[in-house]
Amino acid sequence: MQNVTENIDVGKLLDNWDETHELTKDEALAILNCDDVCLDKLIETAYALRLKYKGKKVSIQLLTNVRSGNCSQNCAYCAQSCESQAQIEKYKRVSDEKLYGDNDLVDNKHLARHCIGLSGISFTDAEIEDLAGRIRKMKKNDTQICCSIGFLTEKQALMLKEAGLNRINHNLNSSRRFYPNICTTHTYDQRINNIRMLKRIGFEMCCGGIIGMGENREDVVDMLMDVKEINPESVPINFLLPIKGTRLADRDISGLTPQYCLKVLCLARLLVPKSDIRCAAGREVYFKGIEPTLFKVVDSIFASGYLTADGQGIDDTTHHLIFILNRPGHPILLLSLLHQEVTCFNLVLQSDAVIHTDQNRFALAQHIAGHELHVVPHPVRFVPCRADIDFFRFLFQFFVLVGVLDSERNLTLEQR
Prior knowledge:
Blueprint: H1 2-6, H2 10-15, H3 25-33, H4 39-54, E1 57-67, H5 96-108, E2 113-118, H6 125-138, E3 145-148, H7 154-163, E4 167-169, H8 188-200, E5 204-206, E6 209-211, H9 217-230, E7 234-239, H10 258-271, E8 276-279, H11 283-286, H12 291-294, E9 300-303, H13 314-320, E10 331-335, E11 342-346, H14 359-369, H15 388-402
Parallel strand pairs: 1-2, 1-9, 2-3, 3-4, 4-5, 6-7, 7-8, 8-9
Antiparallel strand pairs: 1-11, 10-11
């Protein structure tokens, strides 16, 4: 396989990228194995697809652990597995206060979706009916809900669908070949069959995997090829966060370089360009400092943690998710404080910041900046901030990060 991929010119493949071309396994593996010098071209190809199908927004999901621990399955990566010695909180049913409070947070912050996870592989009809009742209450404001759950019977799946559940997460996690290395209490094909049943009865699907568990690159390609066949609405890609007490606690993750992780995400975008590509667990670790590049590929993230692993909180995510590329003409990802929705803007002039605002606050913006700003037409709607004081703080932070001001409010860009 390695000899075959060495003969594939990845640069030429990307230069002549044809979206209708179905990547072969050899070509997909060549992309993962390509020299880092090809990475910029790979990212730009993925970015073009991201813009075409997802525009310039990044959706933020909140994840709530509804049932934690005491799982009968032996998944090597999971703190909730029957073999795990990880010190985690265990409960069979999260409190109504926590569940509905999180759901209200999703609604109030205008997040994209509330994701709920339940440990375990099977459930009684009574447990599913209880969950269905809770979902009905959570849907009062038509909140988008995705549920990560084990193997359902068709009857149980229909109960949840009737309750209003929009989407179900069921990851493949790795390739069919490698799967027995991470779990022996159920099979890869059981997962595939469960997904097929859920799709048949009309659920949206969320299906991805975990990178860094000891698999080789061919396994990653095989998994993503199977994801492509499933064609889910969302593809979460997790990068292993070794958890003390699990079988993978001491797994060597040195191979998870930012460059390799980006190649995996780009390959996912090329294979399933119309799906949400979500950078899930590991985002805060493996992409720290290169978020602008990350968001050229992915359009979806989690905030506030990953079941039993901590993550960046919602306030930190929504108030500080302002990234720049420091080059004119390249995208800036800008988060509105009200709708928690990331939108790309462009720096169109070398020495002038571009911000989209309403005319009532335009004078304030110019006063803070100390030099001329240009408000430019943009195809996305602008959502004003909650209050002038929030707006003031937001603009100051924005201008510091863009480079219009330094921390002492001195101009840092050459004036024309």
